[in-house]
Design brief:
- The protein is of the alpha/beta class.
- A hairpin with a 4-residue loop joins strand 13 and strand 14.
- Helix 8 crosses helix 14.
- It is globular.
Length: about 400
């Protein structure tokens, strides 16, 4: 807001965007309006330029994805007066995936993503895990909580209202209502059609494939949708911040690598609920426990990357013959850190197969490899390779 005419705060529904925007408007002297108000929405759709002219003060506008026509009016207003902090917007759809919206404000707008709450935000710590990874050495880690407490963190996720509720029936009721509202309102509004009856079933199937390679042909056959329709639905879910893609990392080093992304839902609490996991004791016996834990770590890293001093991109790594590293961070200078996630309490040398391959392939570009496990002690496993408790994720 100090140097940019338009700031967009976007993210999944119920992450706290409206609350944050109202607090921001109150503290910074902005006028707050929401397009959830029928009168404001009708006024914007009828005459967007006139609507902005009628509100000359710096303006905070909530739910902007409901009126795409507002963006061209914002562009014209900013071109006439480029004072910073004139407009602060929020939306529950990714405007970067909506060309007509994103192209209107290129060079005039900065985007901030609001994720569900991180573990540090929930428990009162400032996580510096991403920055610590590049220093090398054994990461600091507090005593890992009991496995049931760790499972409770995974199953709660980070949506403020879900975390606030007790585990079991009340939290399940919230997730059920959340998904119904999201699919019935936001996704249908983005699609501009009344169909989409297959979406609840598709989301259920995606939950069962969390942290797995995307296989559109297999998913199409399972859900009975043509691949063209399925790809469109996946894009809609991504636009509504329900679905996240974890891209495959590629290199020019000559090795054949898998190119397909992994798919994650935006919150492990929602994923676990769709899988029928209601109590912490349900997690560890479940066949998808390892994948859900991997998704938990991936989503925490994405949250931390929004504030870390280190700018890096998150990927997964997999060769054509199946050797993989769950998560890979790459800096702009090409330096790489690899992360394996295991639900076991006792790490073994065999768990480092993918990290060792990555190390041998990249040489000095490989800064460190870490195995995040459910045990209690950090253990070195060779040059620049360490096994550390998963609690390092929020205590480093």
């Amino acid at each position: 807001m100090a140097d940019t005419p338009v700031v967009l705060l976007h993210g999944a529904r119920q992450t706290g965007k409206s609350t944050l925007l109202q607090d921001l408007a109150s503290g910074a002297g902005l006028e707050y309006r929401t397009l959830d108000d029928a009168g404001d929405l009708a006024a914007v759709r009828r005459d967007p330029a006139g609507y902005l002219a009628a509100h000359p003060r710096p303006l905070a506008i909530d739910e902007v994805q409901r009126a795409p026509e507002l963006m061209l009016a914002l562009k014209a207003a900013v071109d006439r007066d480029r004072r910073p902090g004139r407009f602060v917007l929020s939306g529950s759809a990714n405007v970067l995936l909506l060309p007509k919206l994103s192209e209107s404000l290129v060079g005039r707008m900065e985007v901030a993503h609001l994720w569900p709450l991180s573990q540090g935000e929930l428990h009162g710590t400032v996580e510096m895990f991403v920055d610590c990874l590049w220093v090398g050495g054994c990461l600091p880690a507090e005593a890992l909580p009991e496995r049931l407490e760790l499972a409770g963190r995974v199953l709660a996720g980070g949506f403020p209202e879900a975390v606030r509720r007790s585990a079991g029936r009340r939290r399940h009721a919230w997730f059920e209502s959340y998904l119904l509202t999201l699919l019935q309102r936001d996704v249908r509004e983005l699609a501009r059609i009344e169909g989409l009856t297959e979406l609840p079933r598709l989301v259920q199937l995606l939950a069962a494939r969390t942290a797995q390679l995307s296989n559109v042909a297999e998913l199409s056959a399972t859900c009975g949708l043509p691949q063209t329709t399925l790809k469109r639905y996946l894009t809609l879910l991504e636009t509504a911040f329900l679905l996240q893609r974890l891209p495959a990392w590629s290199t020019n080093l000559g090795r054949r690598l898998a190119r397909a992304p992994k798919l994650l839902l935006s919150d492990t609490g929602l994923t676990a609920d769709l899988l029928g996991l209601r109590a912490p004791a349900d997690l560890w016996p479940h066949p998808l426990a390892g994948q859900l834990l991997e998704a938990f770590v991936a989503l925490e890293l994405r949250k931390q990357l929004t504030w870390s001093e280190t700018s890096a991109q998150l990927y997964h790594f997999r060769t054509a013959d199946g050797v993989e590293v769950d998560l890979l961070l790459e800096r702009a200078d090409g330096a790489v850190v690899g992360l394996e996630v295991k639900s076991s309490v006792t790490p073994s040398a065999g768990d480092f197969k993918g990290l060792r391959l990555l190390q041998a392939t990249l040489g000095e570009r490989f800064r460190a490899g870490y195995l995040l496990h459910c045990g209690t002690h950090p253990v070195p496993f060779g040059e620049r390779l360490w096994a550390v408790p998963l609690s390092a994720l929020w205590s480093a």
